[in-house]
Design a protein that fits this description.
By secondary structure, the chain is α+β, with helices and mostly antiparallel strands. It is 17% helix and 28% strand.
Length: 630
């Protein structure tokens, strides 16, 4: 910081918009370590510059960059990315390579600068230092403008993988006399995410740049009274996608052809790419990995600020058996890791956790404000029993925390997506809450019975799976028979009580009006599991849907047909597909696609949302997280 010097650009013309040029002082502005400005600084000035104002350029001439270089609050403070994608497609995350690869990998570096100091005495050398904890979690590269290459100079400088477990964190870099005179552009990346704000690496890097003359004395001046300068940078948070995110891709298993057909129809209607996969052995795509992103500001080709980042697949800690080969992280590393697609694991130990740690139990309340609380990027919502390290990770991100906890212990699978979802709406809030409603389902069946349709058949042509024998038996049942099943009716009643309790708490936390909640009808049964009464959808749990913009892929309800029309499909077309609830961006309703998920999902205790996983590419949302003051 400080401007009492002459500066020389060291970047040159390299076609990398994020680098900009080393800022040249204009002898006007604030400067000095903790300086307050007030006029030009005399003599050589030692200056480290970061992009504190988040416009994508570290600029020594920017008062905002100089003033905010030690800050991280609100929308001020320099940022950098966990570089956990694979831009060179070599099968390793880029932060595990000991080089900056091509194919845009250099764009994932956040640049900062040691500004040129031609007034420094001949023979002056510099020292760039970082704190010891950061040295184990970041890597710093210096740019050679002549060769247009990057050299790894500090942080974790060794190949630090299973093949070479000896890591060698380096906490300082000696800056040559030539680089002190000419200035240096550096790039920083994280090898990990922020996992806690209290223990270990808290995601913050403290940088210190000092210059000494040929005799080892600090090069001081009015602008640099100690011959040094400091700056701070923070790793970008992980941000979870939610139901109303602008998805452009969806994943699912290819195990069921009729299910794939339904998802494909919905994806085509939404203009979303569809990637069904096979040969993994886990069709519960929502559960075994979670989609989110991280991003930072970068200067685009025309000087505008663009979102630079990557989508992130976050692995569940356990697989369908105890084999390491069935761990979700293994599938992600082989099938998901790619340019602009990062892979992350938050858990500490393989094969830990249980159903609660499947990601159908981890969701996002869409953006809202309620009193003094504001969540412009939404708020993470989790159910019961989630691993402590995951909960700590969520709160450490800051952008969507503190997380909200719902009780899901009353459910057999134990996931929030069994009774909650969200849909876009043309309202001031921009969305509405969808809630499973056994009460409405029973009322609909009773009305049909009273109208003389008690013999209408539900689940026609479908079969249940017997987990004890491995056989199948018919699921066909009349409305009269369903309503006469006292155990089913009692289970639905107790499930409704649990839903009412949880939705009431959520409604108060968000500030939702009654007309911002839409009931989605289906009966929920109960059973004893380990001596405890738990609940699971009896009819296909239609609230467990995939929402992609104005399109919803919903489990086909196989309800009773009256007058040739499935009464449950008709109800959903009225509540969601018409304009009665102002759903969809234009308020005229959503496009509904009913997917047959009976065999591979419903009768195995899951639905459409459990079997799919959508994601978005940069810019991820229309709102940059770093501009939200969180």
């Amino acid at each position: 910081m400080g401007f009492g010097m002459r500066c020389t650009s060291v970047v040159g013309t390299i076609g990398l918009a994020l680098l900009g040029s080393v800022g040249c002082g204009d002898d006007s502005g604030t400067g000095g370590t903790g300086g307050t400005g007030g006029g030009p600084a005399a003599g050589p000035t030692v200056d480290i510059v970061v992009d504190a104002d988040r416009n994508g350029v570290a600029d020594a001439a920017s008062e905002a960059d100089q003033a905010g270089e030690m800050e991280y609050q609100g929308n001020v403070g320099a940022l950098f990315l966990p570089n956990l994608d694979d831009d060179d497609s070599d099968g390793y995350r880029d932060s595990d390579d000991v080089k900056v690869a091509g194919n845009g990998d250099e764009l994932d570096l956040a640049t900062f600068k040691l500004t040129a100091c031609e007034d420094c005495p001949k023979g002056s050398t510099g020292l760039l230092e970082i704190d010891a904890e950061s040295a184990k979690n970041v890597r710093i590269f210096a740019f050679d403008p002549a060769a247009k290459t990057w050299a790894l100079v500090a942080g974790e400088t060794n190949w630090c993988m299973d093949e070479a477990p000896e890591c060698t964190p380096v906490a300082s870099w000696a800056v040559s006399s030539a680089n002190v005179k000419a200035g240096v552009t550096l790039g920083i990346e994280a090898r990990d995410v922020i996992r806690s704000t209290e223990v270990g690496w808290i995601g913050v890097v403290d940088l210190k740049y000092s210059v000494t003359d040929a005799d080892g004395n600090p090069v001081t001046s009015d602008g640099s009274p100690k011959g040094e300068d400091t700056a701070r940078m923070r790793v970008a948070p992980w941000v979870l996608f939610g139901n109303i995110s602008p998805f452009d891709r969806v994943w699912s298993s290819d195990d069921s052809s009729v299910f794939v057909e339904g998802v494909a129809e919905g994806a085509e209607a939404a203009g979303v790419a569809y990637d069904p996969y096979g040969n993994y052995g886990d069709q519960w795509t929502q559960d075994f990995f979670q989609t989110g992103y991280w991003a930072m500001p970068r200067a685009g080709e025309n000087g505008e600020v663009v979102s630079q980042g990557m989508a992130v697949g976050n692995a569940r800690p356990w697989g369908r058996n105890n084999s390491d080969n069935q761990l979700p992280i293994r599938w992600l590393m082989k099938n998901y890791l790619a340019p602009d697609k990062a892979v992350l694991q938050v858990y500490k130990t393989n094969h830990t956790g249980d159903s609660y740690d499947s990601h159908g139990n981890h969701d996002l309340i869409p953006p809202y404000e309620n009193g003094s609380e504001s969540f412009p990027l939404g708020r993470i919502l989790i159910g019961s029993g989630v691993l402590k390290e995951t909960r700590t990770f969520y709160n450490a991100q800051g952008a969507q925390s503190p997380y909200y906890t719902a009780d899901t212990s009353w459910l057999l699978v134990g996931h929030v997506d069994e009774y909650l979802s969200y849909a876009p709406a043309s309202t001031e809030r921009g969305w509405k809450l969808l809630v499973g409603s056994p009460r409405l389902a029973r009322e609909m069946l009773e009305d049909a019975q009273a109208a003389g349709n008690g013999d209408a058949v539900m689940h026609e042509g479908k079969e249940w799976y017997d987990f004890n024998t491995g056989g199948e038996y018919p699921a066909d049942i009349t409305i009269d028979e369903v309503l006469a099943d006292t155990e089913l009716m009692a289970g639905s009643q107790s499930a409704q009580a649990a839903i009412d309790d949880e939705v009431g708490k959520l409604q108060e936390a968000i500030g939702l009006a009654d007309d911002e909640i839409i009931e989605i009808p289906f009966l929920i049964g109960s059973q004893n599991f380990g001596g405890t009464k738990v609940h699971i959808a009896y009819q296909p749990g239609t609230v467990n849907m995939l929402v992609m913009g104005d399109v919803a892929v919903i489990p086909k309800p196989f309800g009773p047909k009256i007058g040739g029309e499935d009464i449950f499909e008709a109800d959903l077309q009225e509540s969601m597909g018409s304009g009665v609830n102002k759903l969809g961006k234009d308020g005229k309703g959503m496009t509904l696609v009913f997917a047959d998920d009976w065999d591979f999902y419903h009768r195995l205790d899951g639905e459409v949302h459990c079997g799919t996983n959508p994601e978005a590419s940069a810019p991820f949302t229309s709102l940059n997280w770093w501009e939200t003051d969180r």
